[in-house]
Amino acid sequence: MKAFHLLRAGANLLNLSTACGVLLASVTGTGLERGPQGLLLGTGYRPRLPKAGAFTVGNVVLYRADRAFIDAHPDLLSHEAAHSTQYAVCLGLPFLPLYGACAAWSQWRTGNPGSRNVFERAAGLGRGGYPEPRTSKSRRERPWPDSRRQGIGKPGGFRVRRVAGPLRKYRA
Ligand SMILES: [Zn+2]
Prior knowledge:
The chain is an alpha+beta fold. The protein has helices spanning 3-14, 17-27, 67-72, 74-89, 95-110, 118-123, 125-128, 136-141, 147-150, 158-171, and strands at residues 31-34, 40-43, 54-57, 60-63.
């Protein structure tokens, strides 16, 4: 195990988030086994919530699928490993309300809990199976408040309308 993984495992042991993950696995009858990077892998997680194929509590990554699936999807595992690091950075369970707030904000902005969630973006949207937000370009570059209503930022529409339409309107 690399020093970084050891440090992360130690931090999540001390902040009790890994203990919560182990407890959750135990309560839900999810089998645990050792995985790479100092992680514990749970397979066959059954409860309905959370609505995800995999999620992480401390150093415990809980999957609905089996070990063969985990080994076949290293990208997803590295995504979940990044969440494990985020637990360590957030000093353990404070990660959960912070994540929840970011997920709610993302849901409100994009209709998806991950696309504008800073934790999911840092862990890699694609690796976690989240779509990139469709309107990121228009939000970042919009030069006036109602650019979205004007359709600016939509593919093929940015340059033309930016110069021709609304500017004239607002200068009048
Ligand atoms: Zn994620």
